[in-house]
Design goal:
Helix content is about 75%, strand content about 5%. It is globular. It has twelve helices and two strands, in the order ββαααααααααααα. The protein folds into three domains: about 80 residues, Alpha Horseshoe (Serine Threonine Protein Phosphatase 5, Tetratricopeptide repeat), CATH 1.25.40; about 70 residues, no CATH class; about 55 residues, no CATH class. It is mainly α and about 250 residues long. Helix 2 packs antiparallel against helix 3 and helix 9 packs antiparallel against helix 10. A two-stranded antiparallel ribbon has the order 1-2.
Length: about 250
């Protein structure tokens, strides 16, 4: 991770290195404590401001904090701040697939809060940045995850939405359920122990009317441990989908 920079003071005159702060941040992230992790990464960034990895980690903690935030205004504030750090990370390291995908993910958060036209405009940015992340790293599971969700969701656009896209936004890349399934299958291929990939693959299969495979994907997800802050809500979605399927 590079040479050590000293100067972060803790307690009675003791100091910690940037690497130690990063280690603490990663531990807090693993423990699903984004605000605690943010404090450590922010302190590390003061000591090593040109480190793209640290900048991306700050963006990720802000994004994760936005994920669990219930107030819409605060959620958007956190997402906007995260975007600043994600863009900074890409500027510092244009070959960081993770930083590039962070931008795609954050546009997704913006889209949730926006109006119909804004959501479609952000959809273009999601696709573009996910594609760029995969150019950088063709085996990046989360790149395929984001791209797969994009295809599944955008394939459901009605005639009116498509007219807006063509008239005002110059069109969007063609989206298809089949491409969404293919991308999400690649996500589980490259990262089979990530339950969120299986959950979204299940919904892609459902959209493709491949219900036996959808049920299998959701059941697989429920067998895996929740290791990320967004995993437990994903499990809840899978559970609800299975209950609905069995009752239907």
């Amino acid at each position: 991770m590079g040479s050590l920079f000293w100067g972060a003071t803790i307690g009675l005159g003791s100091v910690v290195s940037t690497d130690q702060l990063v280690k603490e941040g990663l531990k807090a992230e693993q423990d699903m404590q984004p605000l605690v992790a943010l404090e450590s990464f922010s302190a590390a960034a003061k000591l090593r401001p040109e480190d793209a990895f640290i900048q991306q980690k700050i963006a990720q903690q802000l994004s994760d904090a936005a994920f669990v935030e219930t107030d819409p205004d605060e959620r958007m504030r956190l997402a906007k701040e995260a975007m600043l750090y994600a863009r900074r990370a890409v500027k510092l390291d244009p070959q960081s697939a993770v930083a590039r995908l962070s931008i795609a993910v954050l546009y997704g958060k913006f889209a949730v809060e926006g109006n119909a036209r804004t959501r479609l405009e952000y959809a273009r940015q999601i696709h573009e940045n996910a594609e760029q992340a995969l150019v950088i790293d063709p085996q990046y599971a989360w790149g395929y995850h984001v791209l797969g969700k994009w295809h599944v969701e955008l394939s459901q656009l009605g005639f009116g939405a498509r007219a807006i896209v063509n008239l005002f936004l110059g069109g969007l890349p063609k989206a298809s359920v089949a491409q969404g399934v293919q991308s999400l299958e690649k996500a589980v291929e490259f990262e089979p122990d990530a339950l969120s990939h299986w959950v979204e693959l299940g919904f892609a299969y459902q959209r493709a009317e491949r219900m036996d495979e959808a049920v299998g994907a959701w059941e697989k997800a429920l067998q895996l441990p929740a290791l990320k802050i967004y995993d437990e809500p994903a499990k809840q979605r899978a559970t609800a989908a299975l209950v609905e399927q069995r009752q239907g």
